[in-house]
Amino acid sequence: MEELKNAKNSQEAIWAAIQAIKEYYNVMDKAVAILLYDDEMKALKFVHPPELMEAGAIPPTTSSSIAAKVFMAKDGFLSNDFLNVKHLAFFEKISGKEEPIRKLIAAPIATKEKTLGVLEVSRGNEESNFTSEDLLFLKQIGEILGEKLQELEHERKT
């Protein structure tokens, strides 16, 4: 967590958040997704994993996107039965995952003033269920990352 708080640029902050998430949830790199809102495109774009960076963008009003719902509601999401949740499976298919996502949690990357993006962590069938404590941790990472990204953007502009 200290690496995230001490990051000197947005790439360092994102990398530190990914590492903290991977360690806490004991998941592989592909299980972590980070989407940031692009003001010019007016859409959420993947910044991680790398294989989804050029996959397209998700308008925040997309009703079948969990990331868009989390972004707009500025609230978390948890499902341990994700196969039965309506979602954009397109990104799942092109991500190269061997099996479909069975469990997912998502939280906004946000400050008090604005939502900057979304964090998602997925698991397969054999892995343990997500808990409310897991979601709370992801929300905390989202808040810390949001504050750090805003701070770095402010420093860059001044």
* Uncertain residue ranges: 90-95
Number of strands: 6
> What form results from the Cα inertia axes?
globular
Order of helices and strands: HHEEEHEHEEH
Q: What is the CA-CA span between the terminal residues?
A: 26 Å
Integer average pLDDT: 89
Query: How much beta, percentage-wise?
Result: 15-25%
How many DSSP H or I helices?
5
The structural class is alpha+beta
Report the major sheet: 6 strands, antiparallel
Strand order of the largest sheet: 3-2-1-6-5-4
What is the radius of gyration?
15 Å
What percent of the residues sit in helical stretches (DSSP H or I)? 25-40%
Question: Please, could you describe this protein's structure?
Answer:
The protein is α+β, with helices and mostly antiparallel strands and 158 residues long. The chain has 5 helices and 6 strands. It has helices at 2-5, 10-25, 66-73, 89-94, 132-157; strands at residues 32-38, 43-48, 57-58, 77-79, 103-110, 115-123. A 6-stranded antiparallel β-sheet has the order 3-2-1-6-5-4, with helices on both faces. A hairpin with a 4-residue loop joins strand 1 and strand 2 (43-48). Helix 2 (10-25) packs antiparallel against helix 5 (132-157). The longest helix has 26 residues, at 132-157.
